[in-house]
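User: I'm putting together notes for a lab meeting next week and I want to include a structural view of one of the chains we've been expressing. I don't have a solved structure, so I'd like a prediction I can at least talk through. The sequence is below, exactly as it appears in our construct file.
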Amino acid sequence: MNTYKRHRFPPEIINYAVWLYYRFNLSHRDIEDLVAERCITVSREAIRLWCIKFGALYARRLRRKHRGYGDTFFIDEVFVKINGKQYYLWRAVDQDGEVVDVYPQAKRDGAAAKRFFKRFFKRLLRNHGGEPRKIVTDKLRSYGVSHEATRIRERGMRRSKSVRQAQRFLGAHAAVHNLFNLGRHLVSADHYRNLRGSALTEWGKAVA
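Assistant: Thanks for the context. Below is the predicted structure for the 208-residue chain, given as structure tokens.
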């Protein structure tokens, strides 16, 4: 089945626009201008629909190819706005900043914690194959870093009209973040370029 059937624009333009949206802190209007610079006229509404449809598809493909997580996990929650209302964004990352799960909930109580941990362990066991060595849930300065990528894209959640839409955005954003989470400040320039090339190759396979 052709993934891009009945779409007027070539796949290369569609997946480039979706990559820009989930990889960088850009709005649909920003991307409209960027592709216009390449003499491609496409509306921000079309880009928005591409990001909804293909973002979820690419994320599923990337998650299937994910190589697994570390053995130490950090869990915390922060406030976010979804359609103007306050929610708690529960998030789990490993020691390398790989996002295991992100889950917005209306409350911050025992029942909400149980729901998140159930999701977290289910995903972890499916993708990791074993129990974690350590889970950190108290207030550490590392939480600010672990939430940084998501907080930068918080405006994407504000545009969502429901928690379901926000969850879809968060899932796609996390999958792309994990693919390009290359630790640039920890490796040499040559090694980083090699890692980036490998990540772009994986992206190319996910959008084919």
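A couple of points you could mention at the meeting. Residues 101 and 119 are 8 Å apart (CA to CA). The first strand starts at residue 72 and ends at 82.

User: Perfect, that's what I needed.
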